[in-house]
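batch job 7 of whatever, protein = Cytosolic protein
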Amino acid sequence: MQEREFWQLLEEVLGRSYGRALAHDQVLDRLEGMTAIEALAAGEEPRVVWNVLCDQMNIPDSRRWGKDHNAPPMPVR
C-alpha cells in the first residue's frame, strides 16, 4: 500500500472530514502514541498505520478496505 492509497481509503471508509481529523488527532497506542500523520512521517508502512487505526476504531475487515479494494500484503520486516 502506498501513502496515497492510505489517504484514499481513509476518505472512503471514514469520510473526508472525520478521517482527516482522526489522522491528525487520534493517538495510536500500538504506534508509540503517534498519530497516523506522525507515524507516516516517521516512515511507518501505510498499511500498518491503516490497520492500527482501523483496529483502534473497531472498523471490521468487511469495511476497512472500501468497496473496490483488496487488502494489500503486509510489509516484510
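notes: Helices lie at 3-14, 16-25, 36-41, 46-56, 61-64.
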